[in-house]
Design a protein that fits this description.
424 residues; alpha/beta; Zinc Finger, Delta Prime, domain 3; 20 helices; elongated
């Protein structure tokens, strides 16, 4: 029997869907970005087109197309599709899916293959992952895991070895512009250039965030006849604070702190203060930042500018008693001082070389004249000699560990030691 209202109900359903869902790609060419995995001739594209997708992990930051691609595969495959969220699913849920998958194979159903889309797979513990392993290994299910975390840290090696791993990158300006253009055609609106630029910049490569803000701008813009015009003022209200990808336990956390440390070491004050600002704006613990500045001052500045350690220590103490926004100032002062200071890692190299000698080199006993007590005959008191220096044995089988550089104040140390050694 013909349902005359089916088309009307479908249109109503579509209108109620979020803009991000309405813009879900209908073909592989609709995808914005991810050319490295979905470009013409790429393996994943060929597998999807042939309906031969194997178990895989899609990982990358939010809003870059992982879920959209998984659901595109679900719509285009002939396999039976099940979706689970690892944050909510338990072992019982997994076993039910696996049992049903086995029944399809045994009963030779038309849809005998089972595709399991598992969102936030990093939430599964080792036991849950072990439940999946035999079914993935045997091909009983095809598993597509989605995660914002690096799978090499969160998925056990046995399971990971059965996956193809595809990394999804943040979307470029060109990619996000393409999405806005598609949205404008579907929703019949115009958007000013400055509003487009603001949306793209503030979304930080996240298409979902961009579309959510854009949808809010569309519905709050009055209709005055013809296409609605989205302005900069409107989008500023709809996306009030820039989204920063920064999970304190994830890759972005370690990447940014690494960039911060390497910028200080590389004497780039502008990059240093930028990465510092990124961490502070993302809610990083100021004490964590202060510890890294302290370490860098000792390891990378060292005796080329000894006061760097004292300034770093002062910043660390400030971080213990001050909160944001005040603590940003001493942290910036210390980080910039370390970045601008002359650099020497001679002290760091010296202690590591000495530790290696202690662990692996010959044993050295303390010379008799250096031992404690009052009977250390033969010891020469340095202050009794010119320049407060006297040559004597301080270590059997002498070996040079500290090699001062000619950087900053360490140059004075280098010159003094060279002068003393020439007098031997």
């Amino acid at each position: 029997m013909t349902d005359f209202f089916e088309n009307e109900r479908e249109q109503t359903k579509q209108a109620a869907m979020p803009l991000a869902a309405r813009l879900a790609p209908k073909t592989l060419d609709d995808f914005a970005g991810q050319h490295e995995v979905l470009g013409e001739g790429k393996m994943l594209r060929r597998l999807i087109s042939a309906d031969k997708v194997t178990s895989a992990v899609f990982f990358g930051p939010p809003g870059v197309g992982k879920t959209a691609l998984a659901r595109f595969i679900a719509r285009s495959t002939k396999a039976h599709v099940t979706e689970l969220n690892a944050a909510a699913a338990g072992v019982a849920d997994l076993k039910k899916v696996l049992q049903e998958a086995q029944l399809r194979i045994e009963n030779n159903f038309a849809e005998k293959r089972t595709l399991l889309i598992l969102d936030e797979i990093h939430h599964f513990n080792k036991t849950q992952q072990d439940v999946l392993l035999p079914s993935v290994e045997s091909g009983q299910i095809i598993l597509i895991g989605l995660t914002t975390e690096n799978p090499y840290f969160y998925i056990n090696n046995a399971l990971l070895s059965r996956f193809s791993v595809f990394e999804f990158k943040p979307l470029s300006r060109e990619d996000l512009t393409k999405i806005i253009t598609r949205a404008a055609k579907i929703e019949n609106f115009k958007i000013t250039d400055d509003a487009t630029d603001f949306l793209i910049t503030q979304s930080n490569g996240d298409a979902r965030r961009l579309l959510n803000a854009l949808e809010l701008a569309i519905v709050t813009t009055p209709y005055t006849g013809g296409p609605k015009e989205i302005t900069l003022e409107t989008v500023k209200e709809c996306i009030q604070k820039r989204h920063l990808n920064y999970d304190k336990k994830g890759d972005e956390h370690y990447d940014i702190i690494s960039a911060f440390i390497k910028s200080m070491r590389g004497s780039d004050p502008d990059a240093t203060v930028y990465w510092l600002a990124r961490m502070l704006e993302s809610g990083e613990d100021p004490r964590f930042i202060a510890r890294r500045i302290f370490i860098c001052a000792a390891e990378d500045v060292g005796l080329a500018e000894p006061s760097a350690v004292m300034i770093a220590e002062a910043a660390f103490k400030s971080a213990e008693v001050l909160g944001m926004p005040e603590v940003r100032i001493p942290l910036a002062e210390a980080a910039l001082y370390v970045a601008c200071a002359p650099k020497s890692n001679a002290a760091y190299l010296a202690i590591d070389a000495a530790l290696d000698e202690v662990r692996n080199g010959p044993r050295r006993d303390v010379p008799a004249h250096l031992k404690s007590g009052f009977k250390n005959e033969g010891y020469k008191y340095a202050h009794d000699f010119p320049n407060h220096y006297v040559e004597q044995e301080y270590m059997p089988n002498p070996k040079k560990f500290y090699k001062p550089t000619a950087q900053g104040k360490e140059k004075n140390i280098k010159e003094r030691l060279e002068t003393l050694r020439k007098k031997k």
